[in-house]
Amino acid sequence: VRLARRHRSNIGTIVSDAVMSVQFLGGGRIATVEESFIARLKAGDVFLLGGRALELVRTEGLTAYVRVAKPGRALLPRWNGGQFPISDTLADAMLERFDEAAQGQYSDKEMRFVAPLLKLQEEWSALPGSQRLLAEVQESADGHHLFLYPFAGRVVHLGLAWLLAWRVGRDTPATFTVAINDYGMELLSATEIDWAARLPALLAAVDRATLAQEVLASINASELARRRFRQIARISGLIFQSHPGEVRSQRQLQASSSLYFDVFRQHDPGNRLLRQAEEELLSAELELDSLARTLDRLAAMPLDVQRPAKTSPLAFPLLVEMLRERVTTESLAQRLTRMLAELEAAAGGKVVQDVGERLAFGQESEKAPKRGGGGRLRRRRRP
Amino acid sequence: MSLSIEAGGETLWLQPDGAVWWPAGRTLFAADLHLGKGAAFRAQGQPVPAGSSARTLARLEAAMASLGGVQLVVLGDFWHGAEGLTPRLLEAVDAFARRVPTALVLGNHDRRIHPPSLPLRAVSGVLPLGPLTAAHEPPPPGTPGFTLAGHWHPAVSIASRAGDRLRRPCFVHYPHALVLPAFGGLTGALTLRRGDLVRHRAQVAVVGDGDLHWLPLAR
Lengths: 383, 219
Prior knowledge:
Chain A is α+β, with helices and mostly antiparallel strands. Chain A has 14 helices and eleven strands. Residues 240-254 and 349-383 of chain A have low confidence and may be disordered. Chain B is of the alpha/beta class. Helix content of chain B is 19%, strand content 30%. Chain B has helices at residues 37-43, 52-67, 87-99, 194-199, and strands at 3-7, 10-14, 20-22, 27-30, 71-74, 102-105, 121-123, 127-129, 132-134, 146-149, 154-159, 165-173, 177-179, 190-191, 203-207, 212-214. In chain B, helix 2 packs parallel to helix 3 (87-99). Chain B is globular and about 45 Å long. The two termini of chain B are 26 Å apart.
C-alpha cells in the first residue's frame, strides 16, 4: 500500500529547478526565480527583475528578500531567463547586422551604440558574419581555449560542442569543459589541440543516422545523461522525496542518483530508465534536426581561425560563463595520471614516488611526533 | 599495481580494489561491504539491479585465492540493513565463510542485525592482530599502535586546470591509522578536505582504474 501510494504520487512529478520566490522586505511578492541563479548572488548584489533593479538583502529557505536598489549601483549578474534558445530568424538577422558592421555601416541607434565594441572585436580578432564561421584559439593559465560562433542557439551549440569534443577524442582522448551561450561556444582543455588544422574535418556534415549515433556516443562521454537520469530517477521513485506533510525517515535507504547511475550501468546496462534518459536527451534537449541543419550550414562556410592575444568581446561572456559541462573521452587512468602530474608540477616539481621511495617516506611519517587531540575530519552523512 | 606502506613495523600492501594485504599475517583486510544494500532498496520498492552483493563476495574470494591468504578481516559494515538479509544472501555468505576464514569487526550497520549463526568470527569493538589493530571507526589522532579502519568511505576530489574535476575513493594513511575505502559495489563516499589531510599529516592513495596513485598534497 505504501509502495503504491508512493508510486502514484511520483507519477505526476514535474521536474524543474527549485524556484525561489522573490519578495520585498515589506512582504510584497514580485516573482519566482530559479534557485541556481539566486545561489550565485551574494547579499548586496543588484539584479534586474520585472523591470526593476533589485538588491538582494538575504535569503531564507526558499524566499529571497530584496529591496529596490539605489540608483547608480552596478548591475552585474543577469538572469538568463531560463534556457530559451534564440530562433534561426533572430540568429540570421544578427549575422546580417555583423555583415553590415564589417562594411562600416552602423545604420541605427543600437548599432551605433555597440560600434566601439564591434570595432574592438574586429581589431583584436574578426567579426563573425553570414558568409564565414569565426573561430578563436587562445591559450591562458586555465588551458587551451577554442571559441566558435555558429549563432545557432544554446541547444544546438551544446550538441555541437559535445560532438566536437567526441570527434576530437576519437584519435586524441581529452577532457573538455564546455561553455555555451546563444552566439557561440567555448571548449576548454588542459591539453593542446591543433584546432586550426582539425576544425574543418571535425565540423564535417554526415548523414542523419551517423549523426544520431555520434551524438549518442558523445552524450555518454558527457555528464548530461547523468543529470537527465536524476530527473527520471525522481519520477520512478528511485530517489524518494517525501510526500507533502510526511516526515522523512529511513536515511539508510537514500542514495544519490549518481550512485544509481553507475550501478545501473555496471549491472543492468539495458535498463529502461537508462534508455529513457538517452532518448529524452536526443529528442528534448539536443534537437537533432537543427543540429544537422547547422552542420550543413557550417560545412558550406569558409572558416576564419583567429589567434587573438586578448580575449575578444565576443569570447568574454563565454569565458566567464559559470555553468559548464564536462566531456571526457580519456580513460579514468589517463585522466587521473594527467591530473596528478599537474598537481605535482604545482606542488613544486616533485616527481611521482615509486614504491621503493615511498616506503622510506612512510617510515618517516610514522616516526614523526604524533599530534595529540586536534579536530576530527569533517563527516558528512553517509548515503 | 599495489602500493606498500610500513606501519607498526609491518609491511602493508594497498590494493587497487580497495583491500589491504598484510603478507606477514597472510591476512586480507577489506572495509564496508554493505552486503544486501541493493536488496534493502528493492524491499522498499526501489528498482535497484541485483548482483552487486554477489559480485562483492566473488571479488573478495578471488583476491584471497590469488594472494594465498589464510584470513580475511572485514573492518565493519559487512551488512547494510535488516531488509537486506535475504535467505539467498545469508546462504551465499554462509558458503563464502566456510571457504574463506573470515573475522568481522562489527560496524554500526552490523551491531543490531548480525546473525550469530553464520560461521564467521564476529568481534565487537576492536580486534588486535599482533602489532596491528582492526577496528571499524578510525581512532582519534594520537591513539597508540597502528589501526586499520573503515567507516568513512573516504574519497578525495581532485581539481585541475581547464575546470576538470574528479572525485575518487582513496586510502588515507595517518601516522596512527590507515582508513580503507569501501569495498562494496553499491556504496557512496565521503569527500575529505585537503586542509584536514595536510594538518593530520595524512598520505592519500587515490584509487584509479586498476591502479593506485599517491596524491601530492601541498605541505
